[in-house]
Amino acid sequence: MKPRRLLRAAIRLAIRGAFGVLVLAIAIGSAGIVALWSHPPGTEARAELTWAGDTKLGASLDAAQSDLTAIAADTDRLAVLARGAIGSLTADDQAPFGEALSQGTTVANAIEADSAALRQTLADLPGAEPTDALAYGADLLARRSDLIAALDATQGLGRSWVTLTGISLEASTLISLLAAHDSTVAAAAAQGRATDYVGALATLDSAIARLDDALTIRNRLANTTDVETLDDWMGRNRVYDQALIALYSALRGSGGVIDDAVRAAFREESRARADLPPDTRGLVVILADIGRGGLNQAVIAIDQARARLSLALDKITSLGGVGPDAASPTASRPVGRVRAAA
């Protein structure tokens, strides 16, 4: 009997030991599974699982950020050109104004082209599919998204520049026509003093034509600009032009003799001349009205785009992107060129 009891005891002990081993194995396996899913691919804890993809994607994002930094530099340049164009509108030398508009058009077109190319480059990189989270680090995927979002700041820059250019050219042409009108009337007055009444009348016809051209521009600007000051300025000058025409016509008819018709014309000319603007300050007010009608808004839109892009780049850099020094080789690249995706 004793051997049987010993055998049964040994069997029970063996069963208990096997059960203990099984429980331990299950516990160890469960711990492994928990540890595995506590550190899924794409996190720093499992960086080795995404290392190959991260290395390639990181290089591509570095290149993309360098291109975005160059676009930001172009946007800075566009803002400077916009303010320069506005500042040179009333200058006697219009060459800087024309140069600013020409350069700005080139830069604005380059920003649009480069932004579109970079957006496509980023779209072609991994990160759009849910499964990409298994092959690439979360920080790199977030950086790709931030770069795409930063490009939104450049949208509309082309339209803003077109608006600025169109209104600036209108304003420049208008100011030039008004100034040319004044100088032409002065030339007609000089001819009149020299008793060349026929020549003076012909010159006045040329002055009125310039005022008519200015009226055409005024009608276009009236949709977006307060033209009250402009209307007052043009109205006073048109009244004077007609008074001067009446005077020289009377003098031509009388052969230069001062008769009643000439005296009456002199009185009308004197009244109209006294009602003229005393100096060119009225042109400054007119230009300010045009500025409020669209020029300032276009400049502000460009400045705001520049600021948004700068803030977006600062954020990307602070979260681990390449710094500005790494991007500087592309900052001086010819506009209109973005490198292909790595």
Question: How are the secondary structure elements laid out?
Answer:
Elements lengths: L1 H37 L12 H37 L7 H30 L13 H14 L5 H37 L3 H25 L6 H27 L5 H15 L6 H38 L5 H8 L11
Helix pairs in contact: 2-3, 2-4, 2-9, 2-10, 3-4, 3-5, 4-9, 5-6, 5-7, 5-9, 6-7, 7-8
Question: What can you see in these coordinates?
Answer:
The chain has helices at residues 2-38, 51-87, 95-124, 138-151, 157-193, 197-221, 228-254, 260-274, 281-318, 324-331. The protein is mainly alpha-helical. It has a domain at 165-295. The longest helix is centred in the C-terminal third of the chain and has 38 residues, at 281-318. The chain is rod-shaped, with a radius of gyration of 39 Å. The chain starts with a helix and ends in an 11-residue tail after the last helix. Mean pLDDT is 82; it is low at 30-43, 325-335 and 337-342.
What labels describe this entry?
about 350 residues, single chain, mainly alpha, 10 helices, disordered C terminus
SS element count, helices:
10
| Helix residue percentage | over 70%
- The total beta strand count reads 0
Rounded to the nearest angstrom, the radius of gyration is: 39 Å
Strand content: under 5%
How would you summarize this macromolecular structure in one to three sentences?
The chain is an all-alpha fold and 342 residues long. It has helices spanning 2-38, 51-87, 95-124, 138-151, 157-193, 197-221, 228-254, 260-274, 281-318, 324-331. Helix 3 packs antiparallel against helix 4 (138-151).
